[in-house]
Specification:
By secondary structure, this protein is α+β, with helices and mostly antiparallel strands. The chain has 8 helices and 4 strands. It is globular and about 55 Å long. Keywords: Oxidoreductase. This is Nitroreductase family protein. Belongs to the nitroreductase family. It comes from Maribacter cobaltidurans.
């Protein structure tokens, strides 16, 4: 039987070239420890976001977050896709990530989504450093979320994120998701996305 500890070891990236250990260890769990996030934990995560790079330092990212057992948590759960609802309730903490669509001059900020992605990269590495797993989810009904949370015009909810300390019980997942959790991780070779001199 696969234990969570064995799963974490199995999920360490089998990289072709040496990289920073926290990046090797990162994966997207669907099970989590029951341990709750403290106020200090949350502050540390958002401080990592706060110091992310952004175009002209506009910092267009915005987040809505909630602890399990709260009304906000249930609202976020209600905006997730049916597939994500099967497992996301294992996380003690949920977030919605959004970005501001226009710059301070009122023009479209073409780089806002890029900057949100940079902030989530910072968040991910900081979380890994703290022993927290993140599972970023595209499967969220953003239009519903905009209404449920009264998101002001000019802001766009993009993704949801499940957060929790690594751990938990594989049996908390349906059988088909247990298989996915134990599946070998794969990535495209560098040659398929990094081209020197010209597009190939």
């Amino acid at each position: 039987m696969t234990t969570v500890e064995q799963l974490q070891l199995d999920n360490i990236a089998k990289n072709d070239h040496q990289i920073y250990p926290l990046l090797k260890q990162r994966y997207s769990p669907r099970i989590f420890s029951k341990q709750e996030l403290t106020k200090n934990d949350i502050n540390r995560l958002f401080e990592a976001i706060r110091w992310s790079a952004s175009c002209y330092n506009w910092q267009p990212w915005r987040f809505i977050y909630a602890h399990k057992g709260s009304e906000g948590y249930d609202k976020i759960m209600g905006c997730l896709s049916e597939f994500n609802q099967k497992w996301a309730g294992n996380a003690p903490f949920l977030m919605l990530a959004a970005y501001k669509e226009k710059n301070p001059e009122g023009e479209e900020n073409f780089h806002a989504l890029h900057d949100l992605g940079l902030s989530l990269g910072n968040l991910t590495v900081q979380a890994e450093y703290m022993g927290l797993g993140l599972h970023h989810m595209a499967g969220v009904d953003w239009k519903k979320a905009q209404k449920v949370f009264n998101v002001p015009e000019g802001f766009h909810i993009s993704t949801a994120i499940a957060v929790g300390y690594y751990g938990g019980d594989l049996n908390d997942l349906p059988n088909e998701l247990q298989d996915q959790e134990k599946a070998e991780r794969t990535r495209k070779p560098q040659e398929e996305f990094a081209f020197e001199g010209s597009w190939k």
